[in-house]
Design brief:
The complex is a heterodimer of chains A (182) and B (283). With 182 residues, chain A is mainly alpha-helical. Helices cover 67% and strands 0% of the residues of chain A. The chains are: A mainly alpha (182), B alpha+beta (283).
């Protein structure tokens, strides 16, 4: 992905929109007593389309913004989401993404990775209360939701960043072949 | 050229990781700093607009979720209704007795009336923490409305939590289910006191800890805030705010304390409007 100032502005807008949607909508709805977490999936999509550096920087920035808005210890979400974005970008640099199933599966796997990461950071920083086993169910459900939400997120982000995508196949009008002597 | 690019990438990655650790080191333990308050203030109007705009969509998802859950809840509610009828009759008798006793001792300020010293400020939930490890919500009432750090927050059903940090037009509420939350509470009618703590990851379950095992607590009993006051210090919460209902109580052999599980009265997963009890006698 070629990051021009215009594309950078679009990425910033996507990140802000994603964070606002997460905090004002997805965090406040519950399906089977678990709220979906779209931020890891958003970071994965940015990493898949932009590469490891874009993924890592986007993950760090999104995590930083979330921590700022929720007035939590800065750096915790950034650390986890930068790892998530970097891994997604690394996958894109090593393998080809041929099917739409790949981003969905990757979003699911890396959301689980991110949720485990949040748990590890929280436990390392200290938890003052007992932890229920339901956290495992919560993590698994969040990954399942990420699988289904990955398609709209991936397609939306790809549409928004289309001018910057090098490998995006361009639609060309088919021309009739020139026949010599005709 | 390629090696240079790889080296640059690694440097950026290392910088971000180190940056995260530095931020964590410097900001861990603080509830808020000037930078965070600034960002939060800038984004607060955006969050309010997003919250209002997305409310119909949120209600739609909640409707589907609640319809799904209502099936199982129906049976439980029927059995609860039966026991509630019995309690209602007993409650009427207690009310009559209470009125007579009040007249006798001329009580003009019962413990529940202490809450009247607080001035309630209504706020709407505009954002919520996405992870289960931090149970906080952001409301659209801040220092401009008279909200201060540590003010108690309630909903129509019961205690919700307390204010953790305040900006001009918004504030963060630490819910009862946050791992750092601890509230001194008592079981009524027994009056047994303990500390209510959450079980991280399970918003339907709170633990009332440090209760004397010789004084048994029973299922269905109500837990309210204790609201203690001693040697110039006072609890953050006024006495008598309903916290939850006892769901189970277990006494561990050879232990001097029993652990009581309770279900919070407030639906902490679906908060929309809350009230912050500002002012109060603790200042």
């Amino acid at each position: 992905m070629i990051v021009t100032p215009k594309i950078l502005a679009r990425i910033v807008a996507i990140a802000i929109l994603g964070v606002l949607l997460q905090l004002s909508f997805f965090s406040q709805v519950e399906l089977l007593q678990t709220s979906p977490d779209v931020l890891p999936a958003l970071v994965v999509c940015l990493g898949l389309l932009g590469g490891s550096m874009t993924g890592a920087v986007a993950g760090f920035s999104i995590g930083f913004l979330v921590d700022c808005l929720l007035v939590e210890a800065l750096g915790a979400s950034s650390l986890v989401l930068l790892g998530t974005g970097y891994l997604a970008g690394l996958f894109r640099e090593r393998f080809e993404v041929h099917s739409l199933l790949v981003p969905a599966l990757l979003c699911m796997g890396l959301t689980l990775f991110a949720e485990l990461g949040f748990a590890v950071v929280a436990l390392l920083l200290g938890i003052d209360s007992p932890v229920s086993l339901l956290v495992v169910r919560d993590m698994l459900l969040k990954s399942v939701y990420a699988f289904f939400l990955a398609w709209p997120i991936y397609l939306g982000v790809r549409w928004a960043l289309r001018p910057a995508l090098v490998e995006e196949p361009k639609l060309r009008r088919r021309r009739q072949p020139t026949v010599l002597g005709a | 050229m390629y090696r240079k690019q790889v080296r640059r990438r690694r440097a950026v990655l290392a910088l971000l990781v180190v940056g995260s650790f530095v931020l964590l080191t410097f900001t861990y333990g603080q509830r808020s700093n000037g930078f965070q308050r600034g960002v939060s203030t800038v984004f607060s109007p955006l969050q309010t607009v997003a919250d209002r705009a997305l409310k119909p969509a949120r209600d739609l998802v909640d409707w589907f979720d609640q319809t799904f859950e209502a099936r199982g809840e129906n049976k439980r509610l029927k059995s609860e209704l039966e026991s509630a009828r019995t309690l209602a009759v007993a409650g009427q008798e207690a009310l009559q007795e209470n009125a007579q006793l009040r007249k006798l001792v001329e009580l003009d300020r019962g413990p529940a009336l202490a809450a009247s010293a607080y001035k309630p400020v209504t706020g709407r939930v505009i954002a919520r923490s996405p992870t289960i490890w931090h149970s906080t919500v952001t409301i659209d009432a801040g220092s401009g409305d008279g909200v201060r750090v540590e003010d108690p927050v309630i909903s129509g059903d019961g205690l919700v939590g307390r204010i953790a940090s305040v900006e001009g037009g918004s504030s963060q509420v630490m819910l009862l289910t946050d791992h750092a939350s601890a509230i001194s509470a008592k079981v009524v009618p027994e009056g047994v006191q303990g500390v209510v703590k959450p079980e991280v990851g399970n918003p339907e379950d709170l633990i009332l800890d440090f209760i004397d095992s010789t004084r048994r607590v029973h299922r269905g009993e109500t837990v309210v805030t204790a609201g203690w006051r001693a040697q110039g210090l006072a609890s953050l919460f006024p006495p008598g705010l309903p916290v939850g209902e006892v769901t189970s109580a277990s006494v561990v052999e050879q232990e001097a304390i029993q652990q009581v599980h309770l279900r919070p009265y407030a639906d902490l997963g679906n908060l929309d409007l809350v009230q912050v009890l500002t002012g109060g006698s603790r200042r």
